[in-house]
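== Folding the chain ==

***
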Amino acid sequence: MSTEFNDGQHYGFFMGGTTLTSANGFYLRQSELTLAALRAAGFLDNMVDGISPPSDLSKLWLDKNTDPAVLKEWNPVGAAWEKVTSQTLFGRVPWKGDWVDSAIYRRADLVRYQGDIWIAVQPSQNHPPAEDDYWDLFIEQTTDGSVTSEKIDASSDFATAIGFTTWTSGQFRTLRARARDTYCILDAPGSADPTGNNLSTTSLQAMATEANSGKGIKLDLLYGNYRIDDGIKFTKPVDLVGRGRGYWHPKPPSAGDGVATEAPTQIILTGTGPKDYTVHGISSMAVSGGVITNPSASLGNDGTYGLTSFENSVATAAGRSRKAFSAGLWFAPGAAGSRVSGLRILPDGGGLNGLSKYVTAGLATDVWADNWDVGIVVEMANQMLLKDVESVGHYRMMGELILAIPANPADSAVPALWGVTHENVQTAGWRATEIRGADAFRCVAVGADYIEVPWADDHPFDNTAFGAIGYGTGTFTLIGTKTFTGISKVGSNLRLTGISTPADIAVGNHIYARVAGGGTSHCRWDSACKFTGMHHQSGNVCHSSALGSNAMPRPGAGFVASGWRMTELEVLGALQGIEEVGIQVHALSKSDIFLDIEGSGAKPLRVIASPTEASNTRVTNPAGRTQFTSIDSRRELVNETGIDARPILDSATASAAYPSDSGFFEMASGRVNSVDFTKADGTAAFQYDRTNARNSHGAHIFPSADNTYDDGSASFRKRSDFARNQFFGTGTARLTGRAGTPVGNEGGNSGSICVDESAGKAYIKPTSAGSSDWRELPQTLTGSTTWDPVSLVDGAGVTQNVTVTGAALGDFCVPSFSLNIQGMILTAHVTSADTVTVRLQNETGGTIDLGSGTLRVAVIKQ
């Protein structure tokens, strides 16, 4: 049978009584009969039938102007009666208008009461809406007359219908509260544009404002390209979530072996970034060892390597100021505990996705991508997590900056940077990642109310910004702090004046430009992280003079760390070097850097570390050192030409790329595993030049030519050697030891020496034959005493005992006296254990009286 009642075949018989008569028997449309039955049962109690529509537009109308009749409802949008469908019928909200006391309200009925919209939880009559067992507030009217969603009882039919669940005894929360847990960028003010056609700055700033209210919300960046022309700063914890990172190719498109792909969520830094940020207390540390001369400059703008300075250079003490810079995302100390995941941030390289300059080969005269200094700044924001994040592109300073001091010196109550974690994070820029703490300078003079440190044009001391300094010996603990009221340049020094009792500070002490919040602890990068350099679209390294005005002032670096109390960094992952410097660590302690290191630039990579200050010849007054730190490449240190890489420690074996190098780790040939920079007592275990011929030179331990290097020197001697065998001379004779005699037990070439460790005897082998041809070496014991023999006439003699420990009866004895015995006879023999008796006999024919002298005895063991 057909399932639709829309033709003359589908009639039903209806009887109006218990007895069939011609008056109460009818043939009716089955569809009309069904609807009438539902109305009688109360299900369609709002249905009106007839040829004219009801005046109450909230009613259903069974239109009998057609056969069969059609059930219709009023469509206010089209202003017409339209046929009811299952969706419109069962999706209808039972709107009852204004609440009246006489009406009976059933569950899910909606009414207006005192301006708010209420939903019935259970049937009621003459029970005004209130938050109770009968009613729930559904929509609350705001002050401007609009409405906003409110809470729904999880037990109500409506809540069940839309899928809400809650804990049995959990908090009763509103729809608004639930929505505010996550703040979607497309809901934010400012008309965010995920296509990349228009700016989304206003929307992202609005999201940051919401997060900075301290609500701990999640900011949801949907799939798309969001352009911003101003930095976004977070001051409270936030969960910033995108839809994923992409693939960032570390080499220029001219290399022809791949290009970057678009990430699902990209924040594109457009235009010239506003230079809104400064940091106090961080300079290049040029006079402390942070800037190093490049002895093999060849590409232009590569005369020096160095740390980034956040201070403007001045020739005199006047005009000291911070260097302002731009940043895309900034996480202040109050944003501790924030999470950032699933996004890429990069300077705009053109195109809707910002990638044109990164994926299209260009000319040396082509400008870089848009001018932004830093991608992400973590300013003392402890316990932050960055996961699946890329901060890459043409950053003029670095992809990521981690500050181990507050940028504002007034923020003093901030602990050391602790627990910042990176998982699958990639950074790139002139420097990929740089971690910086407070500078250290060495005190070179102390006066009546002043101290002096070496002058640097970009020194960070400024009493108008922060008039306090710390001083110590270079360890983690300060000896104390002082305030100063003025600065001046005196000769080649910077003088800090107005210091009370400056004598507390000793010449040679470290002077710190900041006194609080310094250092790092337990910060880590997992093995999926990657540090890459910055390439120009023409294929030139960023500092090459071929770029003309586009060139950067010096070579960049992959990973940089320096600062007071900089410690406990665990750095895993990979480093793809574009520039000449892979790693530069000036002041770093108790850290491990284990990276897959690969060089892709015009020259092999360097790893630069500062030695102990007593060994640092780069500057006159070094401050800061790399100690208790290991650097290792887990798959050796290789570049793409197949040349292995290791530290070249002297110019004799330097590669052609660095013909005059000394004093660096340079990656060129060979290999190195686990380079330790200091011994446990902090003294140098690895030396950087050939001048002092330290025994820890790699070339000394594994020389490439025979009879070339010394192991130690007269000035720098080894304390101990531990070996089973040691070959000497031409390399055939050996020195060895064993428990027991070697005779019959030990072979050896002529000239070999063996020590019987159990008997304390030494043997030499005069020939190379067999194992029995060993000759015991005599053992000599000595003793002495002061002696003034009496005057002796001819034929008289005198004796004197001398203690010689170990002497035994039968041993050979040889006496001597420090004065001329004038022909008398001096003899000696062992008279008892440890005692030798010496006799002086006068047989000269005359009387002799010797003065006081030293009597010595040598005992040769039998």
Summary: Confidence is low (pLDDT under 50) at residues 1-5, 143-152, 160-166, 635-698.
